[in-house]
Hints:
single chain; 239 residues; 2 domains; 8 helices; globular
Amino acid sequence: MKPTGEYKKHVYWLAPEEAEQLHEDLKEQGMRVSTAKGVVCTPLDEMNRISIVPAHVWNETCARPGSWYRKSDRKGLSLVVSSFDVESIRHRKAAVITRSDFVPPRGATLQEKKEMARESGFESLIPHEWGMVSEREQRIYLRWAARLGSDVKEYSFLFLTHTANHANFIDPRFFLEHNGTRVPYSIDVSAHICSCCLELFQVLGSQHRRKLVRPCPGAVIFARLKPDGYLLVESPELQ
């Protein structure tokens, strides 16, 4: 679970007016700040030094997975993702993301995924919109999975895996033990998971001091993250 390389992203959540003020302050300092459009994962790209994700972006390309954001206590807040520590908003830091050399001991079986997705405590947390998947969206996810090397032909398998993977960060069944605490990790390959942004940006699983998260196809395609490699998400007090 050791960090590798120099990749590092600092994650903050701000009220919209605070994000606007930050943008103005950095602009006055001659710094270029990107504003995410369409998808929330582009700030994870190494090329993006600092980015702001307004709340409405969660309603765009990934509107259905964005239902988790809209149901969370982050709803309405703006996300800031920076390659450097922004001192003026350090008190609003939610996580630090680095690359990890972690290799999972195993993934989840089909039966384990079914059990995780149907656990009553988790089912009550699932937003209604999460299950409203259009045929067009199903085709997109199958195409993305194939692009990342999967031979899965049925969207039902992907949806089950997407759901169980999120469940594992809420009530972990697959985790490491580190200094007496649980460190949940993504339960399948990148091709088979969805909306890793929820775990990376602390919308889901923020109760864990550490998480190990694989990028989903969207993050691979739009943020150029390495498929199947794990990212270590740590609470700011650990840094």
